[in-house]
Amino acid sequence: MTRRIEDYALIGDLRTAALVSIDGEIDWLCLPRFDSPAVCSALLGDARHGRWSLAPTGQANSVRRRYRPGTLVLETRWTSAGGTVRVTDLMVPESPGSMVVRIVEGLAGTVRMHTQLAPRMGYGRHTPSMYATDRHLVATAGPDELWLETDVDLTTAEASWSGDFTVAAGERMTFVLSYSAAGVAHEPNPPADAALAATVAFWTEWVGRSTYTGPWEAEVTQSLIVLKALTYAPTGSILAAATTSLPEQLGGSRNWDYRFSWLRDATFTLQAFLATGYREEAAAWRDWLIRTAGDNPCGLQIMYAVDGATELPEQTLDWLPGHGDSTPVRVGNAAANQKQNDVWGEVCDTLFAARAAGLPDAAGQEKLERVLLDNIEAHWDDPDHGLWEVRGPRRHFVHSKLLAWVGLDRAIRSHQHDKDPPQLDRLRVLRRTIAGEIAERGFHAGRKAFTQSYGSDRLDASVLLIPRYGFLPWDDERMITTVDAIQRDLTDHGLVLRYAVTEGRANVDGVPGSEGSFLATSFWLADALHGIGRTDEAIDLFERLLSLRNDVGLLSEEYDPATGQHLGNTPQAFSHASLITTALTLGAANASADVWAGSRQLRPEQLADGEPSRWAVAGANGSRAC
After folding, report:
1. Cα separation of 27 and 164, whole Å?
2. What's the distance, CA 268 to chain centroid?
3. How many angstroms separate the CA atoms of 89 and 102, rounded?
4. Could you tell me if residue 58 is left (phi over 0), alpha (psi between -120 and 50 degrees) or otherwise beta?
5. Is 145 left (phi over 0), alpha (psi -120 to 50) or beta?
6. Whether 553 contacts 67, CB under 8 Å
């Protein structure tokens, strides 16, 4: 039986991650990196494609699980007729190499246990050969080796290790699985108990650095841990999610690989980090981006591999049947080659926010910001694929124009005391030009709302961010009617869609099929309701969204109100970052200014009629970084 997406919990070590089901099965494990080919891929197929099971034999009377408070250490407790047992699952940040540790403890009575580890390298395609050393069981296929150390007697059959054992109260059995590249000497691992202690210490220290002490502190802390788990420690890059191809529609084709670092998605994570005191993560990501762009700053991409690699070719894995028979299963992502003009403004906004939070500029940052600004000046009035990466025709998306304005605004404010008035004057003229165009072409009088793109009457949840970035105040009548229109016409059971898609017809994004409600945009609606003065309604929506988290506090990308199931890749940074910023916004009357440090309201005169058009500044861009 295919487990639901919400049945999985995450463990990770800031280099890679695994998903553990409520049945005690590791159905997703990529080694040695987040984007490496999985050695357990049952998440996208079944046991034939790689799984590690560890659970009581027979039927348990109850199963409860949790993260040990303030950590990413997963504890699953089974109670059966014979007794109670706890399995602790973890991966160890800062260990020499990635390792999965599983500890079985008898709590009461005696419990009969069964385990089977059947790795299948290459996303379930390659069956390993297996052999034993004095202390380890080893599985090898192509360039990959897995080393298992345990005090449980296991047998080898059909390219798997399995065994039955009994654990009594007070007894402990341990399993440590580690990775080595074939031909490379295997490094010894710390004992399981030492690994557990190191992992608890790491997360306890990290969580202790948070500056947030307001309402929903436990929920904010849990989401911060998830965001930290989606960072790639060797470089400082930030992932969108830990998985690939979990469907946005069960049985559908909206299945994408999110194990990469989108600049846009990372900025939302970084805003959450900065708002809660985590400046080191912002500095690490900024430095990674400067290094990544260093060799070719004029070729800056919208996304990269976690190590900064630029080539992310998209391909399908036809031997995998997909989660819930949702095909194709994709690895790589063709969106890397798209034109998404909003990204440059989002990065400018985050660098501005980091500076406002007290983070000193880094070597190479000025050049990076000049490249971002050049991209905005050169391409702000081009159509693009937009925030949602549509695979249909390019359009003049309102959100992309908004972020062009944001990038210019942050540049002006960062350099308003510089001794280059002609450049600043030019940028101010262009900022006003874009503001006037958005006001004129981005607002649909018939719908009384800002819409998805110029000339369209389609609604798009991204326009809920307009006041957050400081373009208009919340009490502007156009924003109030926009919020009303989205709540009325772009929701499903009260949860917000990104934009309208319909089964059986051509969709604006160029992809067939439908999708669930988008969780990040639903948090944005809560922010918007608070912004226009409907705070009680905003809190009700926020509390409802919190209730959609699974039993260990995780959110995927989307949610199906009809079935109550999570949809899309999990856990999703976009969803958890939005949870944090909404909690902080609702937690204090002035929190929104603190959360979005770049946000300032646009003065009415900046939208006044009669400002120079964009043609007035054509060809007046001065010197460029590219």
Report:
1. 20
2. 9
3. 5
4. left
5. beta
6. yes
From the list 14, 25, 29, 92, the residue with the least C-alpha distance to 65 is: 25
Q: Does the reported pTM lie above 0.85?
A: yes
- Computed over every residue of the chain, the mean pLDDT equals 92
Residue 406 DSSP SS3: helix
> In a 3-state reduction of DSSP, which class is residue 421?
helix
Measured CA to CA, the distance from residue 222 to residue 225 in angstroms comes to 5
Q: What pLDDT score does 619 carry?
A: 28
Long-range contacts of 388-393 (CB under 8 A, 24+ apart): 388/460, 388/462, 388/498, 388/499, 388/509, 389/335, 389/338, 389/340, 389/509, 390/508, 390/509, 390/510, 391/334, 391/509, 391/510, 391/511, 392/507, 392/508, 392/509, 392/510, 393/510
Structure tokens given for 120: 């299948």
CA angle 142, 147, 148 (to 5 degrees): 140
- What residues contact 619, with CB distance under 8 A and at least 6 apart? none
Integer Rg of the chain from CA? 25
**How confident is the model at residue 365, as a pLDDT?**
94
The reply to whether omega before 328 is within 30° of 0 (cis) is yes
Cis peptide before 571 (omega within 30 of 0): yes
In 10 A of CB 375, how many CB atoms?
23
Strands (E), 349-489: 443-444, 449-450
User: Are 555 and 549 contacting, i.e. CB atoms less than 8 angstroms apart?
Assistant: yes
Per-residue confidence (pLDDT) for residue 624, from 0 to 100: 53
Task: Tokens 């998805």: give the residue.
Answer: 452
Phi/psi at 289 (5° precision): -65, -40
Terminal C-alpha separation, the chain: 54
Residues of the chain whose pLDDT is less than 70?
Answer: 1, 503-506, 589-626
| Distance separating alpha carbons of residues 455 and 440, to the nearest angstrom | 10
